[in-house]
Design a protein that fits this description.
The complex is a heterodimer of chains A (91) and B (156).
Chain A: H1 2-22, H2 34-46, H3 52-60, H4 62-82
Helix pairs in contact in A: 3-4
Chain B: H1 7-29, H2 38-60, H3 67-85, H4 124-155
Helix pairs in contact in B: 1-2, 2-4, 3-4
Classes of the chains: A mainly alpha (91), B mainly alpha (156).
Chain lengths: 91, 156
């Protein structure tokens, strides 16, 4: 019974994925390229950086990177707090 | 259980450890010129620390990687990143004030394909260093604490 339910769910999701795959856009042609074109044209002028990816990560979307760093900080603090009892006399 | 692995693994670790550190710091320092950056380079350096820990065991690294020092450095990296975000607060949060200014990292790059100018990109290299410091020390602290904790639980 359980296996039958899993098989039905698998076929259901797989059919949806195949259906979505048939209506995908061709490779290399996104529907909206305005932001990409802007970054490629203006990164070297505005940020004076050759690496457009780093310019987006640390300049255009620096606030997003701050959130990313906060997530890592929270994870580290959580793990250190969780293992506090085990490391009282080690390292 | 804290003795580490065989002599083969230890010898290869001695060879590879320095190279991993150099490669990780290179990825962090040239984040504004080549693929990579603070997060990626910090992960490479942390993997070197993890290799050291796996090969020599928790007893072997005692005194070399101080966990309290790692914690402090991680907090310093996070605060430095936040402070660099506040550098351009006069215009906007995370505004790149140093780019094209002529001061530290204030050089401009020629438009189009070029070999790369190290003294460019404003606050980007400084942010890369701050994030790299934060990621390498943070992941290293997590790996050390988790491995030592797991081994200790195993022996009890």
């Amino acid at each position: 019974m359980r296996k039958a339910v899993i098989l039905v769910a698998f076929l259901f999701v797989g059919a949806f994925l195949l259906l979505a795959a048939t209506s995908m856009r061709p490779f290399g042609e996104p529907s909206f390229a305005d932001m990409d074109d802007y970054f490629i044209a203006n990164t070297q002028v505005e940020v004076a950086a050759n690496n457009a990816v780093t310019a987006v990560v640390f300049d255009y979307r620096g606030f997003d990177t701050l959130g990313e760093a906060t997530v890592l900080f929270a994870a580290v603090v959580g793990v250190l707090a969780l293992f506090r009892k085990l490391r009282e006399d080690e390292v | 259980m804290n003795t580490g692995m065989s002599v083969i693994v230890r010898t290869i670790t001695r060879l590879v450890y320095g190279l991993s550190l150099v490669f990780g710091f290179y990825v962090i320092m040239h984040g504004h010129l080549t693929p990579g950056g603070g997060f990626q380079g910090g992960a490479v350096v942390a993997s070197a620390f993890a290799l050291l820990l796996v090969a020599f065991g928790a007893a072997g690294i005692k005194g070399h990687l101080n966990q309290h020092l790692l914690q402090t450095l991680e907090e310093i990296g996070a605060l430095a990143f936040l402070a660099l975000g506040f550098v351009g607060i006069g215009t906007a949060f995370f505004y790149n004030l140093l780019a094209n200014s002529g001061s530290l990292f204030g050089g401009s790059v020629p438009i189009g394909p070029n070999a790369g100018v190290f003294n460019s990109a404003g606050t980007l290299p400084l942010m890369n260093w701050a994030v790299g410091l934060k990621v390498m020390t943070g992941i290293a602290a997590v790996v050390i604490v988790m491995l030592v904790g797991a081994r200790k639980e195993e022996t009890e």
